[in-house]
Every structure is written in structure tokens, then in C-alpha cells.
Amino acid sequence: MNELPFIGADAPPETFPPVEQALRKPDGLLAVGGDLSPERLLAAYRRGIFPWFDDRTPILWWSPDPRMVLETGRMYRSRRLRRTLRRGHYRVTMDQAFDAVVTACADVSLRPDQNATWITPEMADAYGHLHRMGHAHSLEVWQGRRLVGGIYGLALGRIFFGESMFHRINDGSKIALAWLDAELAARDFLLLDCQVESPHLARLGAQPMPRRRFTNLVERHARTDAPPAPWTLGVDRDMAASPQPRPERATG
């Protein structure tokens, strides 16, 4: 930890070392310190950097190589999931329960494989602030009045930086991801950033992208602001089940 570049809390928001200086083990660890002000968070994401830490560590900044990404409109939907998406035993909203989605994503009781969460109260407050500013968005899945799935993240330009998702029913998070994937494709977003590799994300169509290519895409496409919150859904069930991928591929 002592070998990592340290960012003072009063350092300018854009004060980050080049992502090429990130460690290989653990993959992508770049710097320590700073704060979670909106200005610093936005500066970080526009450089392909994100915070990831828990209440036992200081703020840690990461930029892994490769980066796990999903080209919008290209999420894999199994036949069973497509049937579920079309059945309509649920409803979907956007930006109607952002704080509740973040709280559910932080609930370790919904993640039996984890005994701690990186979504600390400090992190929840920071992304709530970004939501109120119009940068962060949530997608909610409901059964009646019960929130049963959701996902949230940050939209900059044509890049959506996914942060976390949760489910309280089978396929609840897949339903949320499928609707978000279709919505982002309809809005002409290029990528949904999934941050780190996992077999689960790979099965859903996400692929590793070399960090240099990812940061080049972010440099080109995340400099402008996306439409501000609140977002409303522009796709329907058929589009969520079978979105129209953009002909443009995410190339560096």
C-alpha cells in the first residue's frame, strides 16, 4: 500500500497517475486517497478509473487490464430468459428508486458468497449525489410494490459505467440488465462497462477489452454529458427480449 501513489483530499479532482502505472497484482490497483466528491468521481471515470474499497481500507482507485465490457444491444438472452422478459409478470422503471437499488446492492444477505460490501455509506451518499446531479441512473424491476431486481451506474457521453446489480427473485438481475442493455442501445450508447472479469458476465455476453482500447473509447465518447436524470424507459418488452444491436462496433 505504501508504494501506491497517494492522492491528498485537497488535490485537484483530476489528480490521478496514468492508468498504465496500475499494479498487475492486484490487477488494476492504481492509487490511494482522495475523496468521493462529484468532481473527482467524474474525473476518474473519464480516465477509465473507478473507486473500489470497503470500510476497512482507505479509498482505493482501480483501472484493471483487461476491462470487462458489454457492447450495447449484444447481451446474450437464453430462450428461457426471453420468455421471462416477454411474460410481463413484473414491471420496470428507471430512476424511480435509485437509493433503494443502491441499498439492495449493498445488502450482503442477498449475496451468500460475500460477507462484506464495498458499497459503504460513503459510497452510497456519493452516488446518490451524482444521481441528483443527473449523472447516475437506476433501473428497477418490481412485482407489485416489491423491488425484486435492479442495477445502477453512471452515464457519461455514450458510455454507461455499471456499478452493481441485485435480485430478490430468480433472474431479477438478468431482467434488469436485459432492459438496461436494450435501453442503452436505443439511446445510442456504445458500451456498458462491467469493470472486472467474471464467468457470470461472460455467459451474458460481456467480453474482456484491453485497457488501452477501453480508455481510448472513453476518451472519445465519455467527454460529453449524457441526457440528465430522471430517465424514462423508451423500450418495450419485445425490445428488451430482442434488442436491435447498433451496426457500429466498439473498436478503438
How would you characterize this protein structure?
This protein has helices at 38-45, 79-87, 98-105, 121-133, 172-186, 199-203, 211-221, 237-241, and strands at residues 6-7, 29-33, 50-51, 60-62, 67-71, 91-94, 136-143, 146-156, 159-167, 191-195, 207-209. The chain is of the alpha+beta class and 252 residues long. The chain has 2 domains: 6-64, Alpha-Beta Plaits, CATH 3.30.70; 68-241, Aminopeptidase. A 7-stranded mixed sheet has the order 6-7-8-9-10-5-11, with helices on both faces. A 4-stranded mixed sheet has the order 1-2-4-3, covered by helices on one side. The protein starts with 5 loop residues before the first strand and ends in an 11-residue tail after the last helix. The mean pLDDT is 92.
* CATH fold category name of the largest domain: Aminopeptidase
* Low-pLDDT ranges: none
CATH class of the largest domain: Alpha Beta
The proportion of residues forming helix, as a percent range, comes to 25-40%
Helix count from the secondary structure assignment: 8
List keywords for this structure.
Aminopeptidase; about 250 residues; four-stranded mixed β-sheet; seven-stranded mixed β-sheet; 2 domains; Alpha-Beta Plaits; alpha+beta
